[in-house]
C-alpha cells in the first residue's frame, strides 16, 4: 500500500469518525425535549414535538396530559432543556382546589412533576440557533378558561428567550380572587434575557393591563430558602419571599433560611422583600438580600405587614435601576419601624431618595407639635405631588364662581345665561360704538 493511499484511508476514517460522533451526539440528547400543544411526536426533535396527550381536554382535567407537564416529566431524572416550538397553553382544570360542582371558577394549581433539587431545567423557545418564538412559539397562561392560579417549579429553573402570554377576563375571578403566580417554590428561579410577557384581555379582545406575579418562595408551603433573579419580562409584583396563605388553622409562607432577590432588568409594578401585601403570612427567618442593578420599578418595599424577625436585611441599589418609590414597610406594618431600621443596611448608588423610618416619625412629631401646621398623611414615598398654586382669596373670576361653594345658591343654568346675556350686551355696545365712530369720520 502506497504512502498516499494510507494518508487517504486515514483521512477518510477520521472524517467518518467525526461525522458519526456528531450524528450520535445530535440524536442522543435525552436531556432536550421539544414540545408543542398539537405535537404528535416523542419530543426528540423540532419536527417531532411532544404534544398534549391523545384526547386531552380542559374539562377532562389532568395536568399530566398537558404538553408542558409531559415535557418536564421526560427530564425528571436527568434535568435538561424544554424547547417550546409551538403554542403551549396551560389550561388544565384537573387540579382544582377544592373540588366543587357549584363553583365554576374554583382556582386550579398546575402541579409540575417531582424532581430532584440537584437537577437543573431550562425552559426556552430558542435552541441551536433557531428562534421558534419568531414562528409563533409561546407559553400561554389561560387564566380565564380555567383560573390556573399557580405554577411552582420543583428544581432550580431558568426561563430564557421565551414569549409568555397572560390571558384573563377582567370580570371573571376565581372564588379565592387570587392572581396567577409563577414561582421557584423555594428553588432557584431565574428569568433570563429576552423573556417577553404580554397581557391579553379576553373581554375586549385587546391588550390587557394585568400581569403575573413572580415569587421566590411558595403559596402553600414553607420553604428553606429562596433565590430569584429577574433580567426581563413585565410583572405586576416580584416577591423575594413567599406569597403565603393564612386561614384559621394554617399559616404558610415562612422562609426558614435566607431569601435573595436580584433585579437586573424588566418592568415591575411592585417589588416586595419578605412577603405579599395582598395576603401577608409569616416572613423570612434568615438573611434577606435585595439587589437592584437594573429594571423599571414602581414601588419598592423591603417588608410586608408582618414584623421582620429574621437576622438582617441588605439592600443594594445601583446601576440603571429606576425606582419611583422606596418603602421600608407599609403603613400597616405590625412591628417597630425603629427596630426594623436597625436590621437594614442600604447601599444606594441611584437617584432614589431613601427616608429612614425614624426620620419619618420625627417629621410627623414635628408637624404635630407645630400649631396650625398642615399635617400630611403618613407616607414613605419620597416623591411629592405638585402643589396647587395659591391665589388671592379676595379675587375670583365669574367662571371660578361656578364651582365655588359660596355661590351655590345661584342656579348654574341661571348663572350661565347671565354670562351669555352679558357677553351679548357687551358685544352690542361695542358694535354701536364702532358704528358711531365710522359715521363721524365719514
Set down the secondary structure blueprint.
Elements: H1 3-27, E1 32-35, H2 67-73, E2 80-84, E3 87-90, E4 108-111, E5 121-124, E6 126-127, E7 130-131, E8 138-142, H3 143-146, E9 148-152, E10 157-160, E11 162-168, E12 181-183, E13 188-191, E14 195-201, E15 206-207, E16 213-215, E17 226-230, E18 234-239, E19 245-246, E20 251-252, E21 259-263, E22 267-272, E23 287-292, E24 296-301, E25 312-317, E26 322-327, H4 337-343, E27 344-348, H5 357-369, H6 412-441
Task: Provide key terms for this protein.
442 residues, alpha/beta, ten-stranded parallel beta sheet, 6 helices, 27 strands, globular
What does this structure look like?
Among the domains are: 211-380; 397-426, no CATH class. It contains six helices and 27 strands. The chain has 442 residues and is of the alpha/beta class. The chain has a ten-stranded parallel sheet. An eight-stranded parallel sheet has the order 4-9-12-16-18-22-24-26. The protein has a five-stranded mixed sheet with strand order 3-8-11-14-15. It starts with a helix and ends with a helix.
Amino acid at each position: 500500500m502506497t504512502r498516499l493511499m494510507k494518508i487517504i484511508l486515514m483521512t477518510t476514517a477520521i472524517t467518518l469518525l467525526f461525522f458519526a460522533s456528531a450524528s450520535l451526539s445530535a440524536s442522543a440528547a435525552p436531556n432536550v425535549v421539544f414540545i408543542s400543544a398539537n405535537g404528535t411526536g416523542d419530543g426528540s426533535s423540532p419536527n417531532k414535538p411532544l404534544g398534549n396527550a391523545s384526547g386531552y381536554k380542559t374539562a377532562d382535567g389532568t395536568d399530566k396530559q398537558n404538553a408542558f407537564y409531559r415535557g418536564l416529566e421526560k427530564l425528571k431524572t436527568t434535568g435538561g432543556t424544554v424547547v417550546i416550538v409551538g403554542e403551549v397553553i396551560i389550561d388544565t382544570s384537573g387540579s382544582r382546589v377544592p373540588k366543587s360542582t357549584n363553583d365554576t371558577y374554583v382556582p386550579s394549581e398546575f402541579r409540575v412533576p417531582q424532581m430532584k433539587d440537584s437537577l437543573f431545567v431550562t425552559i426556552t423557545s430558542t435552541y441551536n440557533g433557531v428562534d421558534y418564538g419568531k414562528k409563533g412559539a409561546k407559553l400561554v397562561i389561560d387564566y380565564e378558561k380555567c383560573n390556573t392560579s399557580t405554577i411552582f417549579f420543583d428544581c432550580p429553573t431558568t426561563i430564557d428567550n421565551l414569549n409568555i402570554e397572560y390571558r384573563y377576563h377582567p370580570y371573571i375571578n376565581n372564588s379565592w380572587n387570587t392572581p396567577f403566580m409563577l414561582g421557584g417554590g423555594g428553588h432557584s428561579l431565574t428569568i433570563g434575557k429576552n423573556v417577553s410577557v404580554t397581557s391579553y384581555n379576553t373581554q375586549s379582545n385587546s391588550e390587557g393591563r394585568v400581569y403575573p406575579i413572580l415569587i421566590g418562595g411558595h403559596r402553600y408551603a414553607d420553604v428553606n430558602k429562596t433565590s430569584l433573579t429577574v433580567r426581563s419580562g413585565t410583572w405586576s409584583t416580584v416577591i423575594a419571599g413567599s406569597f403565603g396563605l393564612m386561614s384559621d388553622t394554617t399559616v404558610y409562607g415562612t422562609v426558614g433560611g435566607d431569601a435573595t432577590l436580584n433585579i437586573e432588568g424588566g418592568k415591575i409594578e411592585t417589588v416586595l422583600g419578605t412577603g405579599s401585601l395582598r395576603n401577608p403570612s409569616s416572613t423570612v427567618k434568615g438573611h434577606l438580600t435585595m439587589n437592584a442593578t437594573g429594571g423599571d420599578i414602581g414601588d419598592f418595599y423591603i417588608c410586608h405587614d408582618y414584623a421582620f424577625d429574621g437576622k438582617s436585611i441588605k439592600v443594594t441599589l445601583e446601576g440603571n435601576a429606576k425606582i419611583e418609590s422606596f418603602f421600608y414597610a407599609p403603613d400597616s406594618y405590625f412591628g417597630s419601624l425603629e427596630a426594623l431600621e436597625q436590621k437594614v443596611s442600604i447601599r444606594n448608588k441611584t437617584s432614589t431618595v431613601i427616608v429612614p423610618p425614624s426620620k419619618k416619625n420625627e417629621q410627623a412629631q414635628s408637624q404635630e407639635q407645630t400649631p396650625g401646621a398642615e399635617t400630611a398623611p403618613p407616607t414613605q414615598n419620597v416623591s411629592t405631588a405638585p402643589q396647587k398654586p395659591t391665589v388671592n382669596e379676595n379675587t375670583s373670576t365669574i367662571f371660578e364662581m361656578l364651582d365655588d361653594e359660596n355661590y351655590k345658591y345661584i342656579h348654574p343654568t341661571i348663572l350661565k345665561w347671565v354670562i351669555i346675556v352679558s357677553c351679548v350686551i357687551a358685544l352690542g355696545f361695542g358694535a354701536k360704538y364702532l358704528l358711531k365712530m365710522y359715521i363721524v369720520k365719514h
